[in-house]
From TrEMBL:
<feature type="binding site">
    <location>
        <position position="121"/>
    </location>
    <ligand>
        <name>substrate</name>
    </ligand>
</feature>
<feature type="binding site">
    <location>
        <position position="98"/>
    </location>
    <ligand>
        <name>NAD(+)</name>
    </ligand>
</feature>
<feature type="binding site">
    <location>
        <begin position="10"/>
        <end position="15"/>
    </location>
    <ligand>
        <name>NAD(+)</name>
    </ligand>
</feature>
<dbReference type="InterPro" id="IPR017751">
    <property type="entry name" value="G3P_DH_NAD-dep_euk"/>
</dbReference>
<keyword id="KW-0520">NAD</keyword>
<protein>
    <recommendedName>
        <fullName>Glycerol-3-phosphate dehydrogenase [NAD(+)]</fullName>
        <ecNumber>1.1.1.8</ecNumber>
    </recommendedName>
</protein>
<feature type="domain" description="Glycerol-3-phosphate dehydrogenase NAD-dependent N-terminal">
    <location>
        <begin position="5"/>
        <end position="170"/>
    </location>
</feature>
<dbReference type="GO" id="GO:0005975">
    <property type="term" value="P:carbohydrate metabolic process"/>
</dbReference>
<dbReference type="Pfam" id="PF01210">
    <property type="entry name" value="NAD_Gly3P_dh_N"/>
</dbReference>
<feature type="active site" description="Proton acceptor">
    <location>
        <position position="210"/>
    </location>
</feature>
<dbReference type="InterPro" id="IPR011128">
    <property type="entry name" value="G3P_DH_NAD-dep_N"/>
</dbReference>
<feature type="domain" description="Glycerol-3-phosphate dehydrogenase NAD-dependent C-terminal">
    <location>
        <begin position="199"/>
        <end position="341"/>
    </location>
</feature>
<feature type="binding site">
    <location>
        <position position="154"/>
    </location>
    <ligand>
        <name>NAD(+)</name>
    </ligand>
</feature>
<dbReference type="GO" id="GO:0005829">
    <property type="term" value="C:cytosol"/>
</dbReference>
<feature type="binding site">
    <location>
        <position position="275"/>
    </location>
    <ligand>
        <name>NAD(+)</name>
    </ligand>
</feature>
<dbReference type="GO" id="GO:0046168">
    <property type="term" value="P:glycerol-3-phosphate catabolic process"/>
</dbReference>
<keyword id="KW-0560">Oxidoreductase</keyword>
Length: 355
């Protein structure tokens, strides 16, 4: 069996936590993987020093995952092409707005036999089309890409607190040596349980759309409406996520939304402890623009729900489907049109069955 060489593209909060997991597994499975894991870092100065140098000497991403030791076989690399050189398994993990530029740099430089897993939670909208990130990577680079998504707040995973995740990986070629078993061996840890499924669209959409729901739950907490209101938002959000998947990606399975970590479990965790939730609550409490709060509160980290709410809204508007997704539409309108968040119950009531 060939030894697989893994590179992680991205080194933010989740990028670094995933690099830690992957490096723990490559070190323990040297019959499957090359031990060294290259991690592409968007270079910047932190306290006057290059972040890559800090990571490679202190073994800590002091800016994006402070307080967590990274295994010494994680090697930070500032040049993207150097980072992916000779790798046959790429793990994509950047905020989704930065992916097009990364793909344009990699285009034509990655052999078609390379395989990838996307840990990115977002979608790509252009024209009147919507593309899940795994398919965007496949199309841009001409390689197969699966998806990893779950109830996985990075700081908790990095502290090795128990969580579960879902990986969608469908072996594209029966002769591939990178199969579900290899992919599971790369990500599964005693504290990070992996379930491998084949619903790439469902897993990807869960990860992207739950961020819109998390913003709504933040609004509810910002208004101090309590747990019943939050449960209502979670229920309505999950229904809209499932409806969106079934309508625009008919290959999705409803069970992915209701039974997997990437579905119901991620909605619950994101609606309590996530960055999108935090920003939604702060926006309502402070009545300040959300992008300003993102810079101030997240210190360089990104909340993907704000751009996803905008992208999904643009897509639904072009399809004349806004009314079918009242919660997604309300989240967009509260952020971008100054709609009053106190109108949420009435908006949701308008589309409920009337007796
Ligand atoms: N953080 C979490 O808890 C978590 C958990 C699961 C999934 N995710 C998803 O993982 C993906 C990556 O998120 P993250 O938390 O690692 O990132 P993050 O929010 O920490 O974002 C910061 C990263 O973006 C990089 N960056 C900034 N400007 C850039 C540019 N112009 N080009 C390229 N990179 C640039 C920074 O260097 C840093 O690595 C997202 O889709 C997110 O939704 C995050
Ligand atoms: O902090 P958030 O809102 O980006 O959510 C993080 C993860 O996606 C939770 O699973």
């Amino acid at each position: 069996m060939p030894i697989h060489k893994v590179s992680v593209i991205g080194s933010g909060n989740w990028g670094s936590a995933i690099a830690k997991i992957v490096a723990e597994n490559t070190a323990e499975n040297s019959e499957i993987f090359d031990t060294d894991v290259r991690m592409w870092v968007f270079e910047e100065l932190v306290g006057g020093k290059k972040l890559t140098e800090i990571i490679n000497t202190q073994h800590e991403n002091v800016k994006y995952l402070p307080g967590i030791k990274l295994p010494s076989n994680v090697v930070a690399v500032p040049d993207l092409l150097d980072a992916v050189k000779d790798a046959d398994l790429l793990v994509f993990n950047v905020p989704h707005q930065f992916l097009p530029r990364i793909c344009s740099q990699l285009k034509g430089k990655v052999p078609p036999t390379v395989r990838a897993v996307s840990c990115i939670k977002g979608v790509e909208v252009s024209g009147d089309g919507i593309t899940i990130i795994a398919n965007y990577i496949s199309k841009e680079l001409g390689i197969y890409c699966g998806a990893l998504s779950g109830a996985n707040l990075a700081p908790e995973v990095a502290q090795e607190k128990f969580s579960e995740t879902t990986i969608a990986y469908k072996v594209p070629n029966p002769n591939d040596t990178i199969d579900a078993r290899v992919v599971r061996a790369l990500f599964h840890r005693p504290y990070f349980h992996v379930n491998v499924v084949d619903d790439v669209a469902g897993v990807s959409l869960c990860g992207a759309l739950k961020n819109i729901v998390a913003l709504a739950s933040g609004f509810v907490d910002g208004m101090e409406w309590g747990d019943n209101a939050k449960a209502a938002i979670i229920r309505r959000g999950l229904l809209e996520m499932t409806k969106f998947g079934r309508e625009f990606f008919p290959e999705c399975k409803a069970a992915t939304f209701t039974e997997e970590s990437c579905g119901v479990a991620d909605v619950i965790t994101s609606c309590s402890g996530g960055r999108n939730h935090k920003l939604g609550a702060a926006m309502i409490k402070s009545n300040r623009p959300i992008f300003e709060l993102e810079d101030e509160l997240l210190k360089g980290q990104k909340a993907q729900g704000v751009t996803t709410a905008q992208e999904v809204h643009e897509f639904l508007e072009r399809r004349d489907k806004l009314e079918d997704f009242p919660l997604f539409t309300a989240v967009h309108d509260i952020i971008f049109k100054g709609m009053d968040s106190y109108a949420l119950p009435q908006i949701l009531e308008d589309v409920e069955q009337k007796f």
